[in-house]
Structure formats: C-alpha cells, structure tokens
Amino acid sequence: MAAPALPLPLAVAAALLALAAAWLWDYAVARHLLRPRAVASVLRAQGVRGPPYRYLRGSNGDVRRMKAEADGAALDARDHDYLPRVVPHFLAWKYKYGAPFLYWFGPQPRICLFDYESVRQVLWNKSGHFTKTDTHPTILAMLGKGLVLVEGTDWVRHRRVANPAFAMDKLKMMTTTMVSCAERLIRECEELAATNKSGEVEVEFSRHFQELTAEVISRTAFGSSYKEGKEVFRTQKQLLALAMATLLNLQLPGFKYLPTKNNRLKWMLEKKMRTTLMAIIQPRLASKGSGFGDDLLGLMLEACFMTEQGEKRDELALTMDEIIDECKTFFFAGHETTSHLLTWAVFLLSLHPEWQERLREEVLRECGKANPTADMLSKLKEMTMVLLETLRLYGPVLTMLRKPISDIRLGSLSIPKGTGIMIPIPILHRDKEVWGENANEFDPLRFENGITNAAKTPQALLSFSIGPRSCIGQNFAMLEAKSVMAMILQKFSFTLSPKYVHAPTDLITLQPKFGLPIVLRPLDV
Ligand code: HEM
C-alpha cells in the first residue's frame, strides 16, 4: 500500500529543507572542509607543505598580521631587497616549509612557485588549461571583465578587437599626445622652480605621475572626451581604496548582494563609472558613418565592426557591456602601472647620478633639446636598459595567478584542479641562480644585449608577463615612459629629497608608501 502523501505546504517545506541541507553540506562541509583537506593531502604526499588550513579564513589572518608587522620598518634607500616588507608571508613560509609551498587564500588552496621552468609552463600554455582565478568583486567592479580577465573564445574575440589599437604605427601617433601631456608637467615644474631663488624645487613625483598617466590614457583612449575619461580615473581610485580595505575579509556566499555600507559604495561607484563610459561610447557609435576616431576607443570600435578576414560586419563583435568593461580595463591597466614605472625609474636615477648623466647624454644626442618623436625614442638604447632594470627590481605588478581547469602535471608535481598557482614576480626577479650574484643591485648593463640575454634563463623578465596572455600595452607603456623620462632629463637634474622614506608597498601595484619627493634643478640656470 502507498504511503499517504504529505499535505502540499508540508511537502514544499520538506523539499526546501532538503535543498537547504544539501546546500549547507556542499558549502560548509564539502567545499570548505573536505576539499581543502583533500588538496592538502594530495600535495603533502608529494612533499609540498605549508601553513595549516583554517576554516573559511585560510591563511588570510596570518598574511594580514605579517604584513602589518613588516609595514613599520622603512628601508635604506639603496636597499632594493624590499621582499621582507612587501611579501613577508611568502618569505616566512618558504623558509619554514621549503619551495614550493601551499597556502590558503580563504578556502582556496594556492601553491606558490619559485622555479622558472614551472612558471614558463603555466604562462606559455596555449590550450587554455590555466585560467585566471576568481576576482574579488570590488576589483572586478574597478577593472571590468575585460581583456585581463576574460577566458577562452571570449579572450580570442576581445584580443582580436583590441590588437589593432596597439599596433606600432598607431602608438607612434599617440606619442604626440604623450609628449604634450609631459610638456604640461615640465612647464609646471619650471614655473615652480622659477619661484625659488636657488632655482631648486621639491616635487612629489608619485602623485604627479599618476595624474600625468591618467591624462595620457584619458586623451589616448577617449580623445576629445578626455575630461569624462578623467572622471573614470577618480572613480577607479575610490574603488581601489575600497578593494584594498576589504581584500582579505571573509567572503561569505551572497554577501556581495547585501546592502552593507561598502557594498552600497561599490554599487554607487560602479553605476557612476558605467554612466560616464556610456556617455562617451554612445555618441561614438552614433557617429559610425564619419568614422570612430583614431584614439584607443575609436580603433577598438572600428575593429568591432570587422570580421577576422577584414570584411565589414553590421553587428558589433563586443556587446555594449563588454565595450564598457574593456574601457575600464584599458583605463586602469593603462595608467596605474605606467605611473609607478616612471616613479621607480626616477627614484633609481636619483640614486645613480652616473646613470642619470648617461641617459641625459643619450637623450641630448638622439633628440637634442626638441620634443622627442617616436623615431627618436626608438634609438634610446640605454634608456630602455634602465627601464627594464627598473621593471625587474620595482615592477608594478607583483604577482600573477592562475588555476588549472583539471588536474595537471607541473614539473614533477601533480596539481589538483582548481588549485591557485601563485607567481611571485619580485622573488623570481631576485633569483641569484638566474640573475647572478648581483640580483639585488641596480645594474642596467645586464640588459645590454637585450631581454633574452639578460639572465641565465631566457624570458626571465616577467614584468609584462610572457606567453599568449602577456601585456598588450607594453609598447604603449615603454613609449610613454621614455617620452616622459627623456623630457625630464632634457630640462632637469634631480636628487632624492632628504624627506624620502623608502617603504615600497603593495597596493595591488608596487608603490612608494609615502610618495617620491624629488629635488629638481633646472639645467639652464
Ligand atoms: C609598466 C606598465 C605595465 C606593466 C608592468 C604591465 C604588466 C602586465 C602584466 C604582468 C600582465 C599580465 C597579467 C596576468 O596575466 O595576470 C598584463 C596584461 C595586460 N595589460 Fe599590462 N602592464 C603595463 C601597462 C599596460 C598598458 C599601458 C595597458 C593598456 C593601455 C595594459 C593593458 C593590459 C591588458 C589589456 C592586459 C591583458 C592582456 C591579455 O590577457 O590578453 N598594460 N600587463
């Protein structure tokens, strides 16, 4: 005989209860307890050890504590080994557990690699086996799901649309914009110096470079709409501050949908950025007949209406949301990194007057006192060497992250699917076996025979990454950095201000915590 059926409300309640219990089991037990244990045990069996897993929080508390302890100690300005300040947790775990080690970003297992061979295997993989890891919601809001974060066929589509905007002939045209933005900064410094009897003036370059590179990307990306573009810069800065404050917080499911104070601020900023970008993009799309313009946005829209075979198409290759996200990506990736490259290059040249003089001679030889052109900049070999050495020692991007989509062999290790793979760039850049005994010293001569011959391992410089996902904007960044450096060297000599405190800090990118005060002396007085 069949059992009597439950009344409907009771049946619904029972079904909901069963669903909730299944979810709770999956979330609280399977994903956050059993899986971390299983991953740790697979890796432990292969000799990979690390800090113990703490339920939900993983190693985040330890990272926060070690970083806070290290943050108090400033370094001698000539000490380029800032690793104990910036990545104290990686050093401590490497020392205690050996390399590679396993740690926990919340419940996510992460294996930290220290050998170039495995790093190359990950970054050069073309089968899409290693994807980017899940991105923190506030970072996603700031950066957009553009080229940096998309995967698979979406990535192919986005990269095809973005590539033409970064072709060398287009970048050469953009050099004029870079130079005219730098001219304004130089003029401002000259005017400041003129107000001082001694002719010397102290300038905080970190802030100036952030404004300069935001101006450059606003103008090169959005042409005549650059003022609205700068609004994006201000909003991204606020989102960056919010991301830094919440990055290591516990991420509970559904939390990002709750109207907390931080979430509401995030939503407001996200909406503001979207409205600003829509106001820039829509008139461009409407002007289809008369061309989209030769700035980054225009070139990208142009490519959106082309097929792979170069024929015209009626529909956009990217949706409006994807174009908005791509604009956010270019904007953030395009100014934040380059401004810090400039900051650290000025820092290093102020410590090494012999290199400052060498570069000045090279600039005056190749460009005279005129504003540099792209062709002149391409002849600045020693400048390139100094910028590459700056990227090696003080590269703005500190880490890269990937995760395999299925279990995979990496060197002698078998890595379980979904395990985060952490690539700590500044640690690898100081590997003495690869870079030589003077790996911690500033020595641009190591790049005398090009990047490939700079170290014992080819492609050891990871600052722009390597492989198919390497930086699309590297030529843009190098041209911009060279224009600005050349123009400063033409007009000023400079030294580090006694007020400078050497405290490199991880704020998603590597930055001087207290800015970069520099004493400038005009050369013509
Ligand atoms: C000094 C300046 C720069 C540095 C150090 C730098 C560094 C990097 C690195 C390390 C990556 C790889 C990230 C990863 O795979 O996780 C990357 C990717 C990328 N960068 Fe840059 N970048 C710089 C300038 C720029 C500029 C000026 C732009 C654009 C205007 C830009 C746009 C991008 C984009 C769109 C990607 C993603 C490429 C892809 O996945 O196909 N970057 N960058």
UniProtKB/TrEMBL annotation:
<dbReference type="InterPro" id="IPR002401">
    <property type="entry name" value="Cyt_P450_E_grp-I"/>
</dbReference>
<keyword id="KW-0812">Transmembrane</keyword>
<keyword id="KW-0479">Metal-binding</keyword>
<keyword id="KW-0560">Oxidoreductase</keyword>
<protein>
    <recommendedName>
        <fullName>Cytochrome P450</fullName>
    </recommendedName>
</protein>
<dbReference type="InterPro" id="IPR050665">
    <property type="entry name" value="Cytochrome_P450_Monooxygen"/>
</dbReference>
<keyword id="KW-0349">Heme</keyword>
<dbReference type="InterPro" id="IPR001128">
    <property type="entry name" value="Cyt_P450"/>
</dbReference>
<keyword id="KW-1133">Transmembrane helix</keyword>
<dbReference type="GO" id="GO:0020037">
    <property type="term" value="F:heme binding"/>
</dbReference>
<dbReference type="GO" id="GO:0005506">
    <property type="term" value="F:iron ion binding"/>
</dbReference>
<dbReference type="InterPro" id="IPR036396">
    <property type="entry name" value="Cyt_P450_sf"/>
</dbReference>
<dbReference type="GO" id="GO:0016705">
    <property type="term" value="F:oxidoreductase activity, acting on paired donors, with incorporation or reduction of molecular oxygen"/>
</dbReference>
<dbReference type="InterPro" id="IPR017972">
    <property type="entry name" value="Cyt_P450_CS"/>
</dbReference>
<keyword id="KW-0408">Iron</keyword>
<dbReference type="Pfam" id="PF00067">
    <property type="entry name" value="p450"/>
</dbReference>
<dbReference type="GO" id="GO:0006629">
    <property type="term" value="P:lipid metabolic process"/>
</dbReference>
<dbReference type="GO" id="GO:0004497">
    <property type="term" value="F:monooxygenase activity"/>
</dbReference>
<feature type="binding site" description="axial binding residue">
    <location>
        <position position="471"/>
    </location>
    <ligand>
        <name>heme</name>
    </ligand>
</feature>
<keyword id="KW-0503">Monooxygenase</keyword>
<comment type="similarity">
    <text>Belongs to the cytochrome P450 family.</text>
</comment>
<dbReference type="GO" id="GO:0016020">
    <property type="term" value="C:membrane"/>
</dbReference>
<keyword id="KW-0472">Membrane</keyword>
